[in-house]
Hints:
By secondary structure, the protein is mainly alpha-helical. The protein has four helices and no strands. The protein has helices at about 5-30, 35-55, 60-75, 85-120.
Amino acid sequence: xxxxxxxxxxxxxxxxxxxxxxxxxxxxxxxxxxxxxxxxxxxxxxxxxxxxxxxxxxxxxxxxxxxxxxxxxxxxxxxxxxxxxxxxxxxxxxxxxxxxxxxxxxxxxxxxxxxxxxxx
Length: 120
């Protein structure tokens, strides 16, 4: 029985949606002229790319470390767009829940597979 790890799936989903939210926040920052366009593009582009890179690297521990860095970066995005403090906080909570719940699901799957192999 080959299934993808739930922890990785949940984490990748959060990071992918986070990348989209960062792009939309950049549009808000640009529209409200909250900073220079170059700064907005550099910060939001770098953060969105980091989120997507982290999602792609989740097979390795560095992907999760980069994911944590993205969480911090999105919350700090509130320095440019104040509502990002709230949005970043929500995504950080989703990240934590995804890691914990996904890890629990993976452990239970593993336990069930061991019990199945041992038989009655």
